[in-house]
Amino acid sequence: MISLFVRVSACAAIVCMPLSVMAADDELDEVVVTASLIESRLSATPASVSVLRADQLAVAGASNFGDVLGMVPNLGFAGGTSRPRFFQIRGIGELEQYEGAPNSSVGFLIDDIDFSGIAMPAALFDMKQAEVLRGPQGTAYGANAIAGLISMRSEAPHDGFELRGELEGGNYGTYGGGVVLNDSFGEDTAWRLALHRQVSDGFRRDAFLGRDDTNGFDENLARLRVVSHLTPTLDMNLTALISDADNGYDAWSIDNSRVTQSDYPGVDSQLSHALAVRLDYDGWKNLTLRSISTFAHSDMAYSYDGDWGNDAMWGMPYNYFELIDRTRRNFSQEFRLRSRGNESGDWVAGVYALRMDEDYSIVDTSDGVAYRQLTSDYRALNLAAYGQVDRSLTAALSLSAGLRIERRGAHYLDSEQLRSNPVDVMEGGHLALTWQLATHRSAYASLTRGYKAGGINTTVADIPDDLRTFDPESLWNLESGLRMQSAGGRFDSQTSIFYMRRSHQQVSSSVQADPENPQDFVLLTDNAARGENLGLETQLGWRPVSSLRLGASLALLRARFLDYKPSEDRNLDGRETPHSPGYQLGLAVDWHDRQGLFAHADFQAVDGYYFSASHDERANAYQLLNLRAGYATDRWTASIYVRNALNEHYAVRGFFFEDEPGVGNKRYIQNGDPRQIGLRVAFGF
Q1: What is the mean pLDDT of each run of 10 residues along the chain (685 residues)?
Q2: CA dist 15 to 12, 20, 134, 589, 628, Å?
Q3: Residues whose CB is less than 8 angstroms from the CB of residue 57 and which lie 6 or more positions away in sequence, other chains included
Q4: What is the rounded distance in angstroms from the CA atom of residue 227 to the CA atom of residue 187?
Q5: Bridge-partner residues for 432, per DSSP?
Q6: Residue 373: how many CB atoms within 10 A of its CB?
Q7: Which residues, in sequence order, are CB contacts of 594 under 8 Å at separation 6+?
Q8: Residue 406: CB partners within 8 Å, gap ≥ 6?
Q9: How are beta strands 259-260 and 205-206 bridged, if at all?
């Protein structure tokens, strides 16, 4: 461990050293982190944060948040769905979450609305920025953010009229587009409406059915934002969102190719209605009161062909199918009281409540006949109180300290008469120091504590009573970082090193009780004794001339179990945790000229990793190259993009079990998407 830290520290020093002696003349806009309790400049935030702004998202030619994961160090995902929504930060996160008792490690917010674990509405159209906060967010977000937080913020309405739109078309039946309309009522109220649709056949072909659309996308989004100065001392910010993703799911094949043989392909759909209302009152002399109210209702269906084949292929009746229906309702209310106008620092105190209800139904069929089914009802109420103080100790040194206490009470009942009423009381917080070393150079050191509530394994299979529930997890994170920028903004960097210690680590595993039934594949969460995660994250930017910008990112990670022996014949002490690649490398080039031509290229290299704690199968290391080139004027832009230009075959999820009758356990993978080529035209006035 010590030797790895030495190598990590050396890498950080080497990466940052050149930036202290370089000068430039192009000032960069200051980036503001909005997902923290007290909004702050990125350069003054004592945490490892990546902020992807609208111009960065646009130049990459991405349409969904899943398309830009490679731009963020130590951020990954586990497949098994039509769109990425099971995220890992620094090797911590869910591999799946199909049970009716959701319990996320990575928070996911869209305009303050909680979509943790169900991030299907994550379209990037008309997004202002996406923020990824790495490490536990124990003070600000508590139980749903032990690994970190992803927060997406859409463009806000502004005074005056704006009309903007885009059209897209590409291979694999891809087409779509969007339109934005912005206007204002008088001087006090402005509104912004964004409509977007994307359709694709899903980059797979079902050879048995002769169809190209069994894994397809059909995603529709409508978002209305309104900002209004209700009174001279009261402002309102409202977001209303409707997202309808009617996607297919047919991503697995017996030969691990992108050609499937399913006779009953599945679906992965989500219809969400959501509302967020933020009110800010500043009628008191030195205080501001903020109220954030959110509501979200999501109806979801997830199904798949359990045998990934057909009777003609098997030469006998062998047909399994699984259907999961879920309805989730979230309501949250938060009040924050914050000081303002204090030269020595700020403080914030607040209370938070989240009510989550989820109705769950699963049906397993064999040859069209249901042989197992389960319905469940889950209710959880989170209540939290928190406080944070930011103080300037000297002209160059500042302190931030925070504490959060949270109680989660849950009620679970299913059709098998299993009842559970767990209550967890958890504490988290942070202590951080920030040094302003020079005008454009700062460093920080922090100790943070995160936590995650316990949970319930909802499964149709018979499992021991002691595996029906699992305990809360806690995590300590020790971290330090350095940020630099040259005087003119031509060079910038941020680097952090971290060490995490996990207690009662929650681990996802699986078991196949009946080898002749591929649906008898039970996914469980249990507690390991301990775990540790350590590594480095660095991001660099360099503009050698005004028309060219180069970027690089590097993540090193060592995440492993400690004292974990899941069974008598299986000892995982010291083994890497699933979906925690040892390295992630990113390189990017952006070029434009004064006549309007532009080009973009980004390259990602990702290390191999274990798929699961249940077996020792690994994903291979892979590399991805994305390209985009086009022409832009003040009114319109036209571009051609190529994603996965090298047509790399790589795995995003893997299992090891017996799916083919009589063959025995075998490695199966879900492939990432193949090469995609498309044309996008955008306009605005």
Answers
A1: 40 36 42 85 88 83 88 94 94 85 92 95 94 95 94 96 96 96 94 97 95 96 97 97 97 95 96 98 93 98 94 89 95 95 86 96 91 92 96 94 96 89 95 93 96 83 74 96 88 96 88 62 79 96 94 97 88 94 96 94 96 93 96 94 95 90 89 95 92
A2: 5, 11, 20, 18, 28
A3: 68, 124, 127, 129, 130
A4: 11
A5: 400, 446
A6: 13
A7: 547
A8: 142, 143, 382, 383, 384, 425, 426, 427, 428, 451
A9: parallel
pLDDT of residue 137: 94
Query: Which residue type does 325 have?
Result: D
Instruction: Tell me the three state secondary structure of residue 513.
Output: coil
For the chain, what are the domain ranges? 2-684
What local confidence, expressed as pLDDT, does residue 345 receive? 83
In three-state secondary structure terms, 255 is coil
∠ at Cα 131 (448, 225), nearest 5°? 125
Entry field: residues in the chain = 685
Q: How many whole angstroms separate alpha carbon 471 and alpha carbon 474? A: 10
For the chain, the distance separating the N- and C-terminal CA atoms, rounded to the nearest angstrom, is 56
The Cα 180–Cα 157 span in angstroms is 10
Q: Which two tokens stand for residue 52?
A: 């992807």
Q: What is the CA radius of gyration of the chain?
A: 25
What is 34-81 written as a DSSP string?
-SSSS-EEGGG-SSEEEEEEHHHHHHTT--BGGGGGGGSTTEEEE-SS
Contact 121, 245 (CB under 8 A): yes
DSSP assigned state of 319: -
- What's the token pair of residue 426? 């958890």
DSSP secondary structure string for all residues of 110-172: ETTEE-TT--TT-B-TTEEEEEEEES--TTTTGGG-SSEEEEEEEPPP-SS-EEEEEEEEETT
Query: 452-490: b or e for each residue (b if 16 or more CB lie within 10 Å)?
Result: bbbbbbbbbbeeeeeeebbbbbbbebebbbbbbbbeebb
H-assigned helices in 532-574: none
Q: Which residue has the tokens 């292929």?
A: 313
Residue 658 CB contacts under 8 Å (≥ 6 apart), including other chains: 512, 515, 516, 518, 664, 665, 666
Domain 2-684 falls under CATH 2.40.170.20: yes
Half-sphere exposure of 5 toward its Cβ, with a 13 Å CA cutoff? Answer: 11
Please check whether residue 421 is in contact with residue 413, taking contact to mean a CB–CB distance below 8 angstroms. no
Q: Residue 652 and residue 255: Cα distance in Å, rounded?
A: 16
Beta bridge partners, 189, equal 185, 228
Integer CA distances (angstroms), 120 to 75, 218, 298, 346, in order: 17, 12, 10, 36
Kindly list the distances between the CA atom of residue 566 and the CA atoms of 77, 122, 434, 559, 569, in Å, as whole numbers in the listed order: 24, 36, 42, 17, 8
CB-based contact 611:653 (threshold 8 Å)? yes
- Are the beta carbons of 560 and 578 closer than 8 angstroms? no
Enter the pTM of the model. 0.93
